[in-house]
Amino acid sequence: MKQRGRHRRRRRGQALRATLAGTALALTAAATLISTSQATGANSPGGLTALRSTSAGQQLRLHENLTSRDALDTLSGNMGGNVGVDGVLRDADRSMRNTADCTTDERGALPVQPTATRAYCWGDADARTGQWQPRSLTTSGDAADDGLWGTHQVILAGWTHRDGQAAAPTRDEGLAKIAFVDATDPDALSYRWVLLVAPRAGGKDFTAVHSGLAGMVWYQDKLIVTAAHGEGLLVFDLHRLLRADVDSGAVGRVGHGYSAAGYQYVLPAIGSYDPEGGACTRGRDRAVPCFGSLSLDRTTNPDSLVATEAAADRPERTRIWRYAFSTAAYRTGLLADAQGHVNAVEAYTTRGSGISGAVSHRSDGTRDAQWYIARPSDSRTQHGSLWRQSGHGAQAATCTADQSHACWSLGSGSLSYWQRTGELWTLTGAADRRVLYAVPLSSVDGSLD
Q1: 108-117, 195-204, 357-366: range with highest mean pLDDT
Q2: Are 140 and 121 in contact (CB under 8 A)?
Q3: I need a labelling partner for 201 at 20 to 30 A (CA). Which of 16, 88, 130, 415 fits?
Q4: pLDDT confidence band for 164 (50 / 70 / 90)
């Protein structure tokens, strides 16, 4: 994309990436790593099993449905035109706290092994709110080869409204918002909230999007997120960020202006990817799976979207699969073929459920991908685990203190790999322990040898 001025900023991007490398955080006691064959306990997910049947592929098939350009243009025109990512970042009104300013509880949510090299905590109001929960993450490292959007390095963090105290769903239940984080200066991260919405009435109005935001991927100029209840995917255009001009609790047109539940900016959906096999069902092997986490794999050809099945109520085999992004120039950042179909190009199952994030990555010179899969603990007070899986088995850290695999973060969200910096990014979602952090993928691999 010409607007990113990629080649003019190559040296600047390299300098920024060198700065972002950081130094390791001193956290907790050391851990040792063992392979699955050496592990004590029975919580290993084991190796991945390939799915090759026609029926398995049909269960994963999607259909693309795009909103008309006229409706999107009408909404943009009525709201004063698109402000774009740069416009939102210039208006960032909140600051993230650096590691030293995080509380002891927040730092305690970070991984035991491997340790994070960078960690940030949210502003006080967002760190302690009980109804909004951080779930997913993607970065400009997904969006562009050089990791830059314009002159910025950007992190997007998805939060969902959950009112656990209400006897019945409230109006705001399932509202979805994204923190647009300017990470260009690694010592001074700032952010602004953006509400996700959907156009209606031919673009003359909009309504709130309800989504669990268990996963999202920013690829080129598109943002793909999980829809409500994991039933499908929603797609957004990052050029079409709009500014609300009415400050009220309403969502949509208010008189001669537009309101976004008190937020200044909105991002309207431009379409969806819906399962062709009908509504999804959790925990049934032969049913259409509900979406869990999402991530991007830039080591496939073409680049691909990695998806996992949402957690089931009981531990069963969980599906993991990928879709290829379109290579047609006129379909920038989209998945479907010319007929609007989206077919999985690879699919596996893994033992157990409860995957919170998964990343697939092929190292230089290797044929098969390694899958890095995060699993939260069943206990809210215990750390989760991070497994590296392939068709041959699985490996994970064993903590020195208790010889368990609970060495990853507390209440971990989805995973995102920033290829240029070699960092694995994620966030924690436990109440009062909400941290955004990065771990070098080489540290994960090195600890597994």
Answers
A1: 195-204
A2: no
A3: 88
A4: low
User: What is the 8-class DSSP label of residue 404?
Assistant: S
Q: How far apart are CA 186 and CA 173, in angstroms?
A: 34
pLDDT at 364: 75
- Residue showing tokens 């937020």: 263
Phi, psi of 230 (to 5 degrees): 70, 15
- DSSP string spanning 171-223? TTTTBEEEEEEE-SSTT--EEEEEEEEEEEGGGTEEEE-B-----EEEETTEE
Starting at the earlier edge strand, list the strands of the sheet with 291-297: 49-50, 344-350, 318-324, 304-309, 291-297
Q: Is the four-CA dihedral 285, 290, 295, 299 of positive or negative sign?
A: positive
> Using an 8 Å Cβ cutoff, are 236 and 247 in contact?
no
The answer for residues whose C-beta is within 8 angstroms of residue 72's C-beta and 6 or more apart is: 199, 203, 237, 240, 268, 270
pLDDT of residue 165: 55
Q: Which residues, 6 or more positions from 266, have their beta carbon under 8 angstroms from its beta carbon?
A: 194, 195, 196, 197, 206, 241, 242, 243, 244, 258, 260
Tell me the whole-structure pTM to 2 decimals. 0.89
Q: Give Dmax (Cα) for the chain.
A: 67
Pairwise CA distance, residues 235 & 202, whole Å? 18
Answer whether 175's CB lies under 8 Å from 261's CB: yes
Residues 6+ apart with CB under 8 A from 220: 1, 143, 144, 332, 333
User: What SS3 class is residue 363?
Assistant: coil
Question: Helix (H, G, I), strand (E, B), or coil: what is residue 65?
Answer: strand
- If you compute the radius of gyration of the chain from its CA atoms, what whole number of angstroms results? 21
**Which CA distances in Å does 195 have to 59, 68, 159, 213?**
31, 21, 10, 12
Torsion of CA 377, 378, 380, 383, to 10 degrees: -20
Find where tokens 């416009």 sit: 87
Q: Provide the percentage of residues in the chain whose pLDDT is more than 70.
A: 86
Distance CA 126, CA 123 (A): 6
Q: For residues 12-34, give the mean pLDDT.
A: 37
What's the pLDDT tens digit per position in 397-446?
Answer: 878 677 778 889 998 899 999 999 999 999 998 778 999 999 999 999 88
**Which of 89-103, 125-139, 169-183, 329-343 has the lowest average pLDDT?**
169-183
Distances (CA, A) of 132 to 16, 141, 348, 409: 32, 26, 32, 19
